[in-house]
Design a protein that fits this description.
InterPro entries: RmlC_Cupin_sf
Number of domains: 3
CATH architecture of the largest domain: Sandwich
Mean pLDDT: 91
Helix content: 40-55%
CATH class of the largest domain: Mainly Beta
Distance between the termini: 53 Å
Number of helices: 15
Strand order of the largest sheet: 3-8-5-6-11-10
Number of strands: 14
CATH topology of the largest domain: Jelly Rolls
Bound molecules: fe (ii) ion
Low-confidence stretches: none
Largest sheet: 6 strands, antiparallel, barrel
Length: about 400
């Protein structure tokens, strides 16, 4: 067992015992213990890894669902300490059924916090409401952040470096604070571990129909949407969206869901569209390991407005104009394609008379204009290029200047 984490565990144990194991006291107590002797300054990660690999004297390993992988470094009946490695780096927007604090031992992250306002439970496993970004900040190595269980603490992390390593001092489970909702912005909260085996089997069966290219696939899904309740209907829509879009049958099926559920379904189209955009960014992140580009992706994934994106870029790179910084990244990310140019998931076609350099210049010029002047003036100048930019995952860059 690593001696640093054993000491940290004993300290937390003694101090919390003095507070009668009050749940309210735990997050701050954990934060202080981590900040007094920060793991980022006191733990040699390489040594810690070697010790874990070669020494059998380790706490019994658990399975929290976080980390790639997670190591359990200290275990007590009331709390434990885990070390989380993050290789791919983004968490869903989520809340916790546990409390404590996390510390960034290596790497840096974009941390977003949200409120879910006007929430209404449809079933015990799905809620509708309005997810609003409350705060977004850069966490550098050495930062410690308290975690509260329940609906007060809704957050997501986008890790910028590979691997990022966090240390979490946490309770096992805070009764009454579940479920541990995941949030699909802007309007849905869903319990990710609800064991609805019937829905799971139906999804698997739909996958079979998709794989064999069953000709009644669309009619089958459409029939399900007409007969199922909101929760199972939503899960079915979410699961089949890709396929239905590829078949050009998405809109009629979505309309059926809206007709059936009326007001309750108002936020569903925007939520599913955003889910697709975020999945696209998550997929792209697997191919992108430049920390600045990952930072750029984290911003467009999590921040809704251009001015907020620019403010965060200024915070990280204070000596240069945020627009120039964005343009630099855009230039690095543009790639030639068969039809013209691609920029992340955006595809841009140009008149054949333009050579490749002219195409680059025109695309960058359009991005610059949109960033500087706002979308309206740009729409008039290069409407097709601008429409492709606004339809790509970079959409927030061109919103509300
Ligand atoms: Fe979390």
């Amino acid at each position: 067992m690593n001696s640093y984490f054993e000491q940290l565990g004993r300290t937390v144990q003694q101090r919390w015992q003095q507070k009668n194991f009050s749940l309210e006291a735990f997050p701050e107590l954990a934060r202080i213990a981590l900040d007094e002797a920060p793991p980022s300054e006191n733990v040699d990660i390489e040594e810690m890894v070697q010790e874990f690999l070669a020494n059998d004297d380790q706490p019994i390993q658990g399975q929290s669902g976080f980390g790639q992988p997670e190591l359990l470094a200290f275990n007590d009946p009331r709390f434990y300490i885990q070390i989380l490695f993050w290789m791919e780096g983004t968490t869903d927007i989520h809340q916790h059924e546990f409390s404590g604090a996390f510390h960034l031992m290596q790497g840096s992250s974009v941390h977003s916090e949200f409120d879910f306002v006007g929430a209404q439970s449809v079933t015990p496993h799905i809620r509708v409401g309005d997810l609003r970004l409350k705060k977004i900040e850069l966490l550098e190595t050495g930062r410690t952040v308290p975690i509260t269980s329940g609906r007060e603490c809704i957050h997501s992390l986008f890790h910028l470096d590979t691997p990022s390593v966090t240390v979490v001092v946490r309770t096992h489970h805070d009764p009454g604070t579940g479920p541990q909702y995941n949030y699909l912005p802007p309007h849905i909260a869903i319990d990710p571990i609800q064991a609805d085996a019937l829905t799971m089997r139906r999804k698997q069966l739909l996958d079979v129909l998709e794989t064999i290219e069953y000709e009644g696939y669309v009619a089958q899904v459409s029939g399900m949407i007409e007969s199922l309740d909101f929760e199972r209907g939503f899960n079915t829509l979410h699961h089949t969206m890709d396929r239905l879009q590829a078949l050009g049958e998405w809109q009629p099926v979505l309309a059926k869901f809206q007709q059936k559920h009326g007001e309750l379904a108002e936020g569903v189209p925007a939520t599913l569209a955003e889910s697709l955009r975020r999945d696209t960014i998550t997929q792209m992140r697997y191919q992108i390991d430049n920390p600045e580009h990952r930072f750029f992706l984290a911003l467009v994934m999590n921040v809704e407005k251009s001015k907020d994106i620019q403010a965060l870029i200024s915070e990280r790179f204070p000596n240069q104009s945020p627009i120039e910084t964005i343009l630099g990244w855009v230039e690095e990310l543009i790639e030639p394609a068969e039809f013209g140019l691609s920029l992340l998931d955006g595809a841009f076609a140009f008149p054949e008379s333009l050579d490749i350099q002219e195409q680059y210049d025109l695309l960058i010029d359009t991005v610059r204009h949109a960033l500087e002047q706002g979308s309206e003036s740009e729409t008039a100048k290069h409407p097709e290029i601008h429409a492709a930019l606004s339809g790509s995952c970079l959409r927030p860059l061109f919103r509300e200047i």
